[in-house]
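Cont'd.
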Amino acid sequence: MTSRTLKVLSTAGLHARPAGLFIETANRFRSAIRVAKGDREVNGKSVLGLMLLEITAGSELTITAEGEDEEQALEALSALITGRFGE
Amino acid sequence: MTVRVQGIGASPGLAVGRAALWRERPPEAGARPGAGAETELARLAAAVGASQEQLRNLAANLAAAAGESEARIFRVHMLLLDDPLLVGAVKAAIEREGLSAEQAVARVSAQLVAQFQALQDAALRERAADVEDLGRRLLANLVGEGPRSASGIVVARNLTPSEVSLLAAQGALAVVTEEGGPTGHMAILARALRLPTVVGAQGVLAEVHEGDLVAVDGASGEVIVRPDDATVAGCQRRLAEQHALHARLDTLKDLPAITPDGFRIELAANIATPAEVDAALEAGAEAVGVFRTEYLFVNRAAPPSEDEQYEAYREVLARMAPRRVIIRTIDLGGDKPAAGWDLPPEPNPALGLRGIRFALARESLFRSQLRALVRASGVGNLAVMLPMIANLDEVRRARALLDAIQEELGVPVPIMLGVMVETPAAALLASELAAETDFLSVGTNDLTQYVLAADRLNPAVAELYDPFHPALLRLLRAVSEAARRHDKWAGVCGEMGGDPLAVPLFVGLGMQELSMVPAAIPAVKDAIRRVRRTDAEALVEETLPLASASEVRSRLARFASGRMPSQ
């Protein structure tokens, strides 16, 4: 299991489009992905879950991946967030 | 007894017909216990498959009727249907608790809806309606209930986008809802599908019975329940008049807007969303005179990405090509708060940080819009228009940003840049502005407010607000003459631009473009084709020295009655 905490810089937070991109990326990996904000944690392969976290610009997220490709999954998802979802 | 209910006009059009009450009837989950996990999971899979199929068809139909951007909502539904929190949770409930598929869907979607409704963020909270819609669709497919139908005037508490597109396809005459606003998905769809619609008609359900006669005016928002014979006759007469007028004006559709002595005016459409391109083309618009981009920025928690903007601009440019599309840069601030920015309330928003001032103060936002515009520019015939210009320097700063972005993106083709003349300063500096830009388009609504220092939404002074005031007309002349001196064109894009009464003035002043709501185009074209430029010029000379708006109006009415046969 590996995890990383990141700050969301995207001005749009994580509304439908970035949330969609996030799960699209997460679904490319076999590992289970969890995303936590504060004391709430959701399935990182669920758009509904990500939207329910109400992630806005400046939110701190902890992404956890568990599985055979956990390192690569975490790398790809972190890159998405630090790259502001290609904004 | 006749009852009138005032709602909000959400999609224009008149209709008289029998009421069909749309009762809230969510499909029943039923008390039947689960028939074993394997059976229930198979039923669930079939319902999910059927739902995907329906959504795919709905999205395709809507994309064809109203454009890809309006269909996006159903593509989102398709995505959510795959979500582990929805179908995954339903499966878990079936497996662990022995529930029937219906019971599991009802429970999971109700829980999700409640979670979304509890969110702080307004845009995310609206997703509750999407989850609810999706849950109902799954349930309906599980219990084998076909889509509901209704004809006549459909009266409902609220309708989902799916229900509205279904009703339009089934030939409903009009829709009246108690809830909802004119900017909701449902209203946008109704407009795109040309289904006369009134929203926010509070109390209407308590007044209407199934089968009651109802008259609906989708423009004014008026709903008349059980109208008396005279009212019905009046509505039917107006409907017949509209049909006759449309039929006559339809014959003009493919004819140019040209005066009998050969002065040609370009007629353009004002649009607020890509979905309105169809209405513009159908009305015979030769261009888009203003594409307001605010819809991309308001009613949401965060501003749109550059890509989302690019998609919207590209769609309008591509569908209008090779016709010109003037895209107005963000006109936010003051009364139109921007997404994601905490704007301090201003004591006097009309004189505050708005239009170009806001854009230049939020340069990263402005840059993202200009980048999206430059990227989309290759697709069609783009012109960019700057709102609320009061200083030459604002134009120069915007031009420098645009040039820098074109350089960055390697787009060397010049992009037309114009000024929306809506401050007295811009009208008085028209010559200097014309020298440095490609066109001037007068926004008469704001210009009238600023020149006459009267807010038309303030009932105490609304009477003072009149764009036919001689002071306005003299500024219009200054703008038109300044443009001509610099070999540029001038036009009018405020509401006055779509008023047939004003047409002889615009012809006489030599305005080369008029932009208006699509529905106004045929009547304005009709007026242009009836007036000689030489007569119109003489009329302008007579009108401009007059002392008041009412004198101008009566002079114009006299001119019109001498020229235009009554309809």
